[in-house]
Amino acid sequence: MAIRQSSKLPSSSIKNKLRKHARRYHGRANKSWVISKYLQELDRFDREDVRKHAAHVASWIAYDPKGRIPKTCLIELLRKYIAKLGGGLLPERLEVVLPDAKTALQSGFTMGEISEVWRQAAHKLQRILDKFRCCRPPTDQVLAVAATQESAADDVVVVPDDDEPSHEDPAALGASSQHLQLCRRINQWGFLDDVQKLERLRQAEEVARRPWRNLSEVDLAEVVNLAATALAAPRRKALAQEEEAGESGQASASTDPGANHDLQRRVRSLLLRVLRMWRASQYDFGVIEHVLGFVHVKIDKFEEKVGSIQDAAAGRCWQAIKDVIDELQGVARGASGLQACEAKRRERLFRRFQRQSGVQNICWKKEIASWRVQRVEAGKHKAVHFPISKHTKEGLSEEEAVAAALEEAKAHREELVRQGKLQPSKPKATGSMVRGVKFNTGGSFRVQITNPRTKKRQGGTFKTLAEAEAKAQELAKEWGLHDEEVAVERLSELPHFEPLAPEPGVKWRRGAQHWRAQCHVNSKNRNFTVKPKDYSEKEVEKAWKQAVAWRKQQEKEREQAERARKR
Length: 567
Hints:
Helix 1 (about 10-25) crosses helix 3 and helix 10 packs antiparallel against helix 11. Among the domains are: about 10-135; about 155-245 and about 255-335, no CATH class; about 495-565, Single alpha-helices involved in coiled-coils or other helix-helix interfaces (Up-down Bundle). The protein is built from 20 helices and 11 strands. The strands form 4 sheets. It has a 3-stranded antiparallel sheet with strand order 2-3-4. Strands 5-6-7 form a 3-stranded antiparallel sheet, with helices on one face. Strands 9-10-11 form a 3-stranded antiparallel sheet, covered by helices on one side. By secondary structure, the chain is mostly helical. A hairpin with a 2-residue loop joins strand 10 and strand 11 (about 525-530).
């Protein structure tokens, strides 16, 4: 599968060779074994081997004959190979294939349903690829020319320095309307004098001093945009010390450097404050996504050229800004930690699902994709499951299989009623699907909904169902709660993960959303399940390792038991 490298070959010949290599890979039935082999050999490869095989992996993503979405494990493999490339010029083969790999990743976002883990891995790889000159979009040059023409029209030439924002960062993020608007803001900021800049900064600081509960999303977004517009790139500490030494040594010099230094200190403090307010208010991340990406590019460039952002001037403030941005981006990709627990708690207390049987003793079990008929007999809980897998194997769609399984569950319940093991189903006192509406035994209706900010229950008691539902809907709209009725996720829409390595007995269960490990010890099957806290790469890998460790421990116990029997 190796390709003989030749720097004299034209790019078309190199691309054709890589296409042939990709076709051979995609024609294999054991692609997961190839990926695991490349991952194992990465540790012993030297620099030349890494550069050669990185082109192989990139071609698997770029030149899929059927145009399929690349798997997450393949994206992670390419990211690990690129991380070990080292410095220096890229080989010609990588310069040819990496732009095509980036294009394939971008097209994957528009092809069908993609999981959040895939989206996160693809975004990480795209950000790494954007650092290579061969992968930068042509819009960089277009925006640079546009900015030059705009400056020339006003007979003004803007030359960005260390204290003025650069025009290249937002262009690297794309040519969307938001990025273009940010470019115009940066141009306008460059034309202002120091007095105008200080006045605008003072107005933004006054807005940021208000309590975050009294600030609307529009007002806060405006302050975030202004702070990002005025923000200069991070600098080394040595440069800041030299600047201060120059100011003290030249009494007749201009006071602009000192003013700029104080201005940037206030801008950084303002940006950090409003980002924390945005996080506390839980506003829409998409409104300021382009601004956060712009600031993150500045930090990435410093860390790439100099080192850790903590070593920059005002390193503590820069590190705090980076941490808040990473947290906001992590929350946008998938709620985690306390927010995830709060979301699950709200869902468990208030949300009602469309997939309901409408019959007592019959409920839907999402973990195993099955209807369950449950009853209590002689003080013991008994249940019978009717999974949809039986019907999907017969060629029915998922919704048709759900309906067929429900009919079987209802028929089984009727049989239990005839046997006297269950009572006939009784209609509910209230058929309301509005959350928080409950029926009182006295004939009235009670509304109880928890305010997400004060954590206090509010509502009241009403004589009619219509009045209770109207009050519940009014409170839900006022507090921005979810809709009353929520569709159940299909199995095909749930996240699915392939094993991270060839490990028998460990697999991902889509319905239950956890890793399951099995092992046969002492004539008994043992099972172990572990569910990741969220669907981030770190948590999924952590849960996988726990399942694998349990499996290996059981295998050791099995070997010891076999040796004991042989004695």
